[in-house]
Automatic annotation (TrEMBL):
It holds the Pfam family HSP70. Gene3D superfamilies: 3.30.420.40, Actin, Chain A, domain 4, Substrate Binding Domain Of DNAk, Chain A, domain 1. The lineage of its organism: Bacteria, Pseudomonadati, Planctomycetota, Planctomycetia, Gemmatales. CDD domains: ASKHA_NBD_HSP70_DnaK_HscA_HscC (cd24029). The keyword Chloroplast does not apply. SUPFAM superfamilies: Actin-like ATPase domain, Heat shock protein 70kD (HSP70), peptide-binding domain. This is Chaperone protein DnaK. It comes from Urbifossiella limnaea. The keyword Chaperone applies. Belongs to the heat shock protein 70 family.
Length: 512
């Protein structure tokens, strides 16, 4: 019986659990690797292959392999077919999750619950979709947790008596997403002060720049044919670009070879050239880093440590840029690719204990994680759409970005017709005063209002954000004082019936 933490990454996943002393440890997959590539191959006979073998198969069957699914999470579809079929991103994420949990169960015994991590900058729709992926996989998702918070938690549990208290900046640059977070670390208290990020910026974008550079050069040298237009040449080029990028993290010079349409061109590439090709991406992360500090209301001299998280922080330019901006050498003591999963396992232990009501001192496991307080903030402002007299729609912000969670605000609305039985409230996430520029989380219907309610009756709506960033809405009819049901209808989200159907499909797969 085990609780696990899962870092469901854009390009790589990791799993961790708590050892007998309550310390989080990474659990390798069946092949002995601590990281499992987030890739799914769907075979013609109802089989699915997850991980490195799926990436290998992509070189021959690119249209049967799904990668970068996390980039599409929160959207109704993957954007392209896999093995000839349209997929929900949740379903393919679920296939990955099932494989990860099955591998972990082989070593740990039955997996009873899990915590899945999400980028801090994920909005409610993406958080809900991630939890749904867990349910489709047949897992009991006891919570979700932000990736940088998980990293900070794992960091503070390192060493004999944990990390020294202080304020840390977590710079998390993965394969597909970028988060930067300021966390105040106490002995048993983690308080997130501010979050900034970009859900579409990661190592993959560095690869794409390199692919573009190499393809242009190939066309010049080999007479015009573009390797990006052939699916087989493209996957091979993408893999070569990613390898070249990794090599340049270690040495100053490498060679990238492109083969396409009977031509083969080898091009030398130096670290300096690579850095100049990708410079604008690094600048984007620098601007976001400076912004988060302003959001936290701090100056660099108040930051005690800069923690690096995510595989892309291996690039030397990242450390150099951060040293320049922050005035201190970044801390590279973390296992950048495993620390998020470890923090998720620790968070699973904390949630489990809280729910079980186990008091400290029962076992060492409990002692380590007992009384740990985690406080996070909302990454996006939460508001409701208000129609103006001139017909325009405004975003009326109820809970501002970077407010401590959990948070809730109560507003009063009025019925506009005689005997109205339901009221509609549109919930928005975003910073713009214009509703159209925000992300609609969904419509919340306040149902079950008493019959014959006069026009203009007050209905109280409480919009809240839970500690894990999920939005909750409750409502009360002020005339009768009774609570009314408040259900959020998410336009792109899965219904219960769809969830069950997708879960059944995933259960029927032979996953290898
Ligand atoms: N030595 C290295 N040099 C440069 N980049 C590297 C190196 N090692 C890994 N990477 C890059 O790091 C990325 C993977 O990092 P990580 O596993 O943290 O991301 P992820 O968890 O899949 O993504 P995300 O957290 O954004 O969802 C890939 O883009 C990979 O190419
Ligand atoms: Mg990650």
């Amino acid at each position: 019986m085990a609780l696990i933490g899962i870092d469901l990454g854009t390009t790589f996943c990791a799993v961790a659990a708590l050892d007998e002393r309550g310390r989080p440890v990474t659990v390798p997959n069946r092949d002995g690797d601590v990281l499992t590539p987030s890739a799914v191959y769907l075979g013609p006979d109802g089989t699915a292959v997850v991980g490195q073998p799926a990436l290998d198969l992509a070189l021959d069957y690119p249209d049967r392999v799904a990668t970068l699914v996390k980039r599409r999470i929160g959207y109704p579809d993957l954007g392209h077919p896999v093995a000839g079929r349209a997929f929900r991103p949740e379903t393919l994420s679920a296939v990955i999750l099932r494989k990860l949990a099955a591998d972990a169960a082989q070593q740990l015994g039955r997996v009873t619950g899990c915590v899945i991590t999400v980028p801090a900058y994920f909005d409610d729709t993406r958080r809900k979709a991630t939890m749904d992926a867990g349910r489709i996989a047949g897992l009991d998702v006891i919570d979700i947790v932000d990736e940088p918070s998980a990293a900070a938690l794992a960091y503070s549990l390192q060493g004999a008596d944990g990390a020294t208290p202080g304020t840390v900046l977590v710079y998390d640059l993965g394969g597909g997403t970028f988060d930067v977070t300021v966390v105040s670390l106490g002995k048993k208290r983690f308080r997130v002060l501010a979050v900034e990020g970009d859900v579409r910026l990661g190592g993959k974008d560095w690869d794409d720049k390199l692919v573009g550079w190499a393809a242009d050069r190939f066309q010049r040298e080999a007479g015009g044919a573009d390797p990006r237009l052939d699916p087989l040449s493209l996957v091979a080029l993408q893999a070569a670009a990613e390898r070249a990028k990794r090599t340049l993290s270690k040495v100053e010079q490498t060679t990238l070879t492109v083969s396409h349409a009977g031509h083969r061109v080898s091009m030398p590439l130096s670290r300096g050239e690579f850095e100049s090709i990708t410079k604008d991406l690094l600048v984007r992360t620098r601007l976001t880093t400076q912004q988060v500090l302003r959001q936290a209301g701090l100056t660099w001299d108040k930051i005690d440590r800069v923690l690096l998280v995510g595989g892309s922080t291996h690039m030397p330019a990242v450390g150099r840029m951060l040293a320049e901006v922050t005035g201190r050498e970044p801390d590279r003591s973390l296992a950048v690719s495993e620390v998020v999963a470890r923090g998720a396992a620790a968070h699973a232990g904390i949630v489990y204990q809280r729910e079980q009501g186990i008091r400290r001192g029962d076992t060492p496991v409990h002692e380590l994680l007992a009384d740990v307080i985690e406080i996070s903030v909302n990454a996006h402002s939460l508001g409701v759409e208000v129609k103006q007299p001139d017909g325009t729609r405004r975003n009326d912000i109820l809970i501002a970005k970077n407010t401590q969670l959990p948070a809730a605000v109560t507003r009063e609305y009025f019925t506009i017709g005689e005997g109205q039985s339901r009221v509609r409230v549109r919930i928005l996430q975003g910073e713009s005063p214009q509703a159209a520029a925000c992300i609609p989380v969904g419509e919340c219907w306040i149902d079950g209002l008493p019959a014959e309610l006069p026009k203009g009756s007050p209905v109280e709506v409480r919009c809240g954000v839970a500690a894990n960033g999920r939005i909750e809405v409750t409502a009360r009819d002020r005339t009768s004082g009774r609570s009314a049901t408040a259900t959020i209808h998410r336009p792109g989200g899965l219904t219960e019936a769809q969830l069950t159907a997708e879960a059944e499909w995933v259960r029927g797969l032979k996953i290898q």
